[in-house]
Specification:
six-stranded antiparallel beta sheet, 12% strand, 764 residues
Length: 764
């Protein structure tokens, strides 16, 4: 029996130098255990750590070649026929005009920060633009304008977004096939193509959004490898600079800041719960992020406005939006010192406190309705028709013609006065007539009434009331002082207050601001002050005053408030506006330009658009199921694959949410292009979902599926490309391309260029 049993072979001798697995190295006594390695990693020291590419972006030489090829394709697509049309398109009306004002140093106010406009202006300036084209109307043919160079700026930034999408997904540890898919989706997305081919701000916005995401992902990878290394600081600082750039293009960049901010808070929360991280080390992490992600973006943003103010040093059509102190800093708007005291007989200019400080104004034109007497308005610019002489109305009406013979009498609270218009010799007057626009019972018309030599009637009389004075000038609380005293004028007979608000009069009053006498006047809109005063009875050495020149910080903060107020005021409906609920469905686009059976209509690539929307909702459903399964005790979140894709897709979903949902809170005009930053995140998310779904497939199968998706996207792009490039189109093709009834391509549904020309300036 023993003969049938095979003897066990002796064990082979151990080689003197056994081979080691490169992926799973053999543990040695010199290697730290897991806890020690994690502790060292948190401090930035990892013994035996293999070199890793900066930012964790693993890209082979073959991938670089492929990426260059895709970028060249994007160049061809975005620069094709860039010179056409050779006329003003959509909001080039505004942003081209702003470039003209930069070149001429004429101050203007826009609801967007200056960076993107400065880049476009720089291109125009370098190529010899003199700023003399007015960009007045959509369809106006360009003359002596380097518009191709100016369009090239957003086009190049649109091209640069393509490789950024690839590198971002590679940094997020997606496969090369997935990253190529994202880059090609961005390349052939019709909406992004259309928006990047014109003098508009959204392409720079999307580029800096993509750049910020890439830098942040690179920093997160560095943070896992070696905190506080040179590369760690580099990626973190670049993230901060990019955050400053994105918010300096449009305030929509605040949503990008929020995306990085939430991720930062999550990182710090994990560090706070890690007992191996000391309080001192946590403080270093906190301060580094605060320095680079708060201070650096803020300084960059402010620096853009410093450049903005330095260039726009002259007076322009934006003066009226700013305070008098601000205007005083502009070339051509400076004011000579003026008398501090105001007395009977003084010739004064009176400004409104609340509504951008317009001047109380009258001109020799009458109201077409009501009393048909001379108009009184609020006018934003200096003019001789802003001058009024203060007269005493406490006498019996026989005011002496030679008022200069009277003793000097300062204007004090409770004094009854008249204001006589210096140019037309008519008195500021109010009576029981309704104003031409604010036709309500508690508002009375204000006019200028009288003839030369006529002393007027009691409807010309106003009671002077001081509301407040300057703390630095005690006299301003006891009598009227130039620039220092805020006052109200109460009508002696009716008790209403001189009042103005942001209501414009029609064309017959040159669209100047309405002035009324309001019985229920809001305090802020019934406050006035004297800007200049002159009186021959005052000695030459009498006290004089002038505006305090504000510093950069004061001007910066004031402009931010004006931008916010102006942006919030864009509430009128528009022919092509849309609400956020319609954007993920691509319900309608925006008509940019129409001429000679050619049209530019902003519309996305339906396949890319709807696939990205499906990916967003798929993530919501799957994440909800995972949460429910976790409640039932399932261990899904202990699976490294689930954790990887949950982190990846969760970050992209966070970016999409923060760039999309805040628009539901806005009552202002909104358009499809406001969705583009969120669309970028949605496209990356769709590719992340693709990476997950195809993770178990063979590479060849995965590549074939990606190829099919790309082919469909390219077909969609080609089919709708006449709308992006303004190519000739037949009516039949136009009708066939209307896959949704709400896609209102203008010329095939009989819209006219006149409708498009009413397009107003949009935000964000």
């Amino acid at each position: 029996m023993s003969a049938n049993v095979r003897a066990r072979r002796p064990p082979s001798p151990i080689p003197s130098q056994p081979p080691r697995s490169q992926r799973f190295p053999t543990l040695t006594h010199s290697r730290s255990d897991a806890d020690e390695r994690r502790t060292l990693a948190s401090k930035g020291y990892i013994p035996g750590r293999k070199p890793h590419p900066s930012g964790g972006v693993y890209v082979t030489s073959a991938e670089w070649k492929l990426l260059i090829l895709i970028t060249l394709i994007a160049v061809g697509i975005r620069l094709f026929r860039l010179s056409q049309p050779n006329s003003v398109v959509f909001d080039e009306v505004h942003f081209g005009k702003f470039a003209s004002k930069y070149i001429k140093s004429q101050y203007f106010v826009d609801v967007h920060p200056p960076l993107a406009k400065l880049l476009i202006t720089l291109a125009g300036f370098v190529f010899g633009y003199d700023g003399n084209f007015d960009f007045k109307d959509i369809g106006k043919v360009y003359e002596r304008v380097p518009y191709i160079a100016m369009r090239l700026v957003p086009a190049i930034l649109g091209v640069a977004t393509v490789p950024l999408s690839y590198l971002t997904l590679r940094a997020l540890d997606c496969r090369a096939t997935t990253s190529v898919l994202a880059a090609l989706f961005i390349t052939f997305e019709n909406g992004l193509i259309t928006q990047s081919r014109h003098i508009l701000l959204d392409s720079p916005l999307i580029f800096f959004t993509a750049l910020t995401v890439f830098f942040w992902v690179g920093f997160c990878n560095e943070d896992k490898q070696q905190p506080f290394s040179d590369h760690w600081w580099l990626w973190l600082t670049l993230t901060g600079l990019s955050l400053g750039a994105v918010v300096s293009c449009k305030w929509v960049g605040l949503f990008t800041i929020a995306t990085v901010g939430f991720s930062t808070v999550y990182q710090l929360w994990l560090l706070l719960g890690d007992m191996r991280v000391s309080a001192r080390l946590f403080f270093r992490h906190f301060m580094a992020r605060a320095l680079c992600l708060i201070l650096v973006p803020a300084l960059f943003y402010m620096f853009m406005f410093w450049i903005h103010f330095a260039i726009l040093s002259g007076s322009g059509d934006g003066d009226g939006f700013m305070s008098s102190e601000f205007q005083h800093t502009l070339r051509g708007r400076g004011m000579a010192d003026t008398y501090a005291d105001v007395a009977i007989g003084s010739v004064v200019t009176i400004r409104h406190v609340n509504t951008q400080g317009g001047y109380l104004h009258s001109h020799p034109h009458n109201y077409p309705t009501g009393s048909q007497q001379q108009q009184v308005t609020l006018y934003p610019h200096r003019d001789s028709n802003n001058d009024w002489r203060i007269l005493n109305a406490t006498t019996d009406g026989s005011e002496p013609q030679d008022w200069a013979t009277l003793p000097l009498t300062y204007v004090a609270p409770g004094m009854r006065i008249k204001l006589r218009h210096a140019a037309t010799d008519k008195a500021l007057h109010s009576h029981d007539f309704r104003p031409p626009v604010s036709d309500v019972d508690f508002q009375n018309e204000v006019s200028a009434y009288g003839v030369p030599g006529y002393s007027g009637d009691m409807n010309d009389d106003w009671i002077f009331e001081i509301y407040e004075g300057s703390k630095k000038d005690p006299q301003s609380k006891r009598r009227l002082r130039t620039l220092r005293t805020h006052f109200r004028l109460r009508h002696a007979l009716t008790g209403c207050y001189l009042f103005s608000h942001k209501v414009k009069l029609p064309d017959w009053a040159y669209e100047q601001q309405e002035v009324t006498c309001n019985k229920n006047a809001v305090l802020a809109n019934s406050l006035w002050y004297v800007e200049t005063a002159d009186n021959v009875l005052l000695p030459p050495d009498a006290a004089k005053v002038n505006y305090r020149r504000p510093g950069f910080l004061s001007k910066f903060l004031e402009l931010q408030q004006v931008m916010w107020t102006t942006n919030a005021g864009l509430t009128d409906r528009h022919t092509f506006d849309s609400r956020p609920d319609a954007w993920p469905r691509l319900r309608r686009g925006i008509n940019f330009w129409v001429k000679d059976h050619k049209q530019i209509y902003l519309l996305g690539n339906p396949m890319v658009w709807w696939l990205s929307t499906a990916a967003v909702f798929s993530y919501i459903v799957v994440r909800g199921l995972l949460i429910l399964r976790a409640k039932r005790g399932c261990k899904d979140f202990e699976n490294t694959k689930v954790v990887k894709y949950d982190t990846l897709c969760g970050f992209l979903f966070l970016g999409w949410s923060l760039h999309y949902f805040p628009f539901f809170l806005m009552s202002r005009q909104l358009f499809l292009h406001h969705y583009f930053p969120a669309l970028y995140f949605a496209i990356l998310l769709s590719c992340g979902v693709f990476d997950l779904v195809t993770s178990t497939l063979r590479p060849r199968i995965r590549l074939q599926i990606a190829a099919v998706l790309v082919i469909i996207a390219i077909w969609n792009f080609i089919y709708l490309s006449p709308l992006a490039y303004g190519l000739p189109w037949t009516k039949a093709k136009c009708q066939n391309a209307r896959w949704l009834k709400t896609w209102d391509f203008s010329w095939c549904v009989h819209y006219s260029l006149a409708i498009i020309s009413k397009i107003t300036y949009s935000f964000l």
